[in-house]
Task: structure prediction
Amino acid sequence: MKKMVYKRVINLMENTRLSKVVFYLMVLCVSLIGFFKGVLAETGGKDAQWYPANLFSKDIDFYSFFLENFNDWFMRSVPNYYYQLYYLLYPISSVSWESFKLIWFLGNITLLLFFLFQVKKDFNFDYKKMGIIFLPFFIGFPLILLFTNGQSTVLILVLAYLAWKHRDNKWLLPIFLSLLTLKYSFGVPIVFGFLLMGYYRSVLFGGLITLLFPLMYSIQFNLNFVSAIFLPFKVSTSPTTRPLGSGPGDLMSLYGQFFDGPLLGINVLTISLLLFIGLFAFLAIRYRLDKKTIFIGSLLFSLFGFYHFGHDYVLFILIVPFMFNLRFFKWMYGYLLIFCLMPRIIRVWDFVFESEIGVKPFMMNKYFVMFNVSVLIIYFFVIIRDDIISKKRGVKRRYINFKDFKSQSQENLLMNVDS
Result:
């Protein structure tokens, strides 16, 4: 009886009603702001892929159409995603633009809530912990910007998490890996991570599933199959997409700050990326890195290695739970808090001191981009180094399973009550 009463007290302390209310209020506020800016605003959802999906429903080769008619293209919905996305959108591709924006927004919110509930359940976080670790995104710009622009990063982090969660399912994993490559700037590095983990069969079958989509597309529009495979990349590397701007923390954007040459080819960028890929593979094989280390490393590499805007920092919502108990988490959390609040800090600074720093000029300044790239690379190597050191010291498990941690803590407390 004494045990049961104390156990209830512990559970009440960990899941207070106030923490729960505050957490849901933060989610509600972000959702409402995202709805007003992404759905109701006239320029909201400008990156949502309605136009290419709508062209697809009218039996038009939208990739080629963009390359030939980019001056008359609708908003900023450049079709630089891979084929899977447009086949997924096909059932709603014929609806109006206003209806599509609403469906896209509701889909993002649903996926975000699904992910948050999964994290709470799988890591056994209470509402207080959930509110604290995701606070930078609830009060910062990446998540709101994602809803405002109608981006798809939430879908990517959900697919990545499901791929990790079902990594030992030989049927589901290839499907999730294939779907991940619809945004290949994230998907390819993550798939490479699963390859380093040893899931060769799933990666192979995931690749074959992916190739089915350009095959169907090439048959539908009478295109060469090999050319169709690279058609989305042709769109993404086209000079017509460069004016969209640069990101605040990736090597491709940093390269664009110093060089005018193309992204593809033998240059500083491709050599740097190949060195990172080779070093990542060497360290994973040589030191038999923990699968979670490889997974987090692939997420970080996808963020700093390939072209991304600020809203793609939402991927940290997936990274944070895995790194929560590591000793350098507070430094990463502090960095995230500053990064996510940076636009607000700059606006306050401009107002108080009547300066004209400007959010975009600052966030895309080459020194700020260089700083962010450096921080992400440091985290990438620190987490690998931490794993290597742990193995040298004979520590078998670096990552605490929060379900085990919580149950052990409760058992210790209950033992103290008995004594």
Summary: The chain has 22 helices and no strands. The chain has one domain: 2-418. The longest helix spans residues 366-392. The two ends are 14 Å apart (CA to CA).
